[in-house]
């Protein structure tokens, strides 16, 4: 079992080597098809999703598909105390790069309360078939998920997915109820989703 810090470094190296390669794009295309045809996606009216960076699963096609289907997209903004606030994303939303180096809406954006979010698409560096998630180290999503009661999904291309646990899992780590991969859909028997 590896430490989270070690696994983060390993995953960042692995994902950097895969960025921009066709294999990553081809895997993402397969995952988009599975997610977009699912009932959990089709039934969701308000979807929380990140504005992805190059090393992350590319969320832009999901955002476009959601907006085309007249769904409401909300994206996270980081707050003090390692908390997230979700704001509506549309053509008028102003986006800036945060102190953490991620794209997020400005402070004056329209806030959407978590109770209104039907589906949260959660990012991560790695996932397991048991729903374990290796995040980026801030605990933002673990705090959010501890209080969120809607459907939860993560998308994991092969470089991001493990059948078994490879890193330490802490008591405050929140499991992901549904993980969509190129090889199938992994859902927890117990939990959200």
Automatic annotation (TrEMBL):
Keyword tRNA processing part of the UniProt annotation: no
Cofactors required: Mg(2+)
GO BP terms, alphabetized: folic acid-containing compound biosynthetic process; tetrahydrofolate interconversion
GO MF annotation list: 5-formyltetrahydrofolate cyclo-ligase activity; ATP binding; metal ion binding
Reactions listed under catalytic activity: (6S)-5-formyl-5,6,7,8-tetrahydrofolate + ATP = (6R)-5,10-methenyltetrahydrofolate + ADP + phosphate
Binding site for substrate: 51, 56
Family, as annotated: Belongs to the 5-formyltetrahydrofolate cyclo-ligase family.
Name of this chain's protein: 5-formyltetrahydrofolate cyclo-ligase
Organism: Ligilactobacillus acidipiscis
Lineage, top ranks: Bacteria, Bacillati, Bacillota, Bacilli, Lactobacillales
């Amino acid at each position: 079992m590896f430490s989270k810090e070690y696994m983060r470094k390993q995953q960042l190296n692995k994902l950097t080597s895969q960025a921009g390669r066709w294999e990553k794009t081809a895997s993402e295309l397969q995952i988009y098809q599975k997610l977009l045809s699912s009932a959990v996606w089709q039934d969701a009216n308000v979807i929380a999703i990140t504005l992805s960076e190059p090393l992350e699963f590319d969320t832009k096609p999901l955002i476009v598909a959601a907006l085309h289907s007249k769904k409401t997209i909300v994206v996270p903004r980081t707050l003090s105390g390692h908390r997230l606030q979700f704001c509506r994303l549309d053509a008028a939303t102003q986006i800036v790069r945060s102190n953490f180096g991620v794209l997020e809406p400005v402070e004056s954006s329209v806030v959407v309360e978590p109770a209104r979010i039907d589906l949260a698409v959660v990012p991560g560096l790695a996932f397991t078939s048991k729903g374990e998630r290796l995040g980026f180290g801030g605990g933002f999503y673990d705090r959010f998920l501890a209080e969120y009661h809607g459907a939860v999904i993560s998308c994991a291309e092969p470089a991001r997915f493990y059948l078994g646990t490879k890193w330490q899992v802490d008591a405050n780590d929140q499991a992901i109820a549904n993980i969509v991969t190129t090889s199938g859909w992994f859902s927890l028997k117990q939990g959200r989703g």
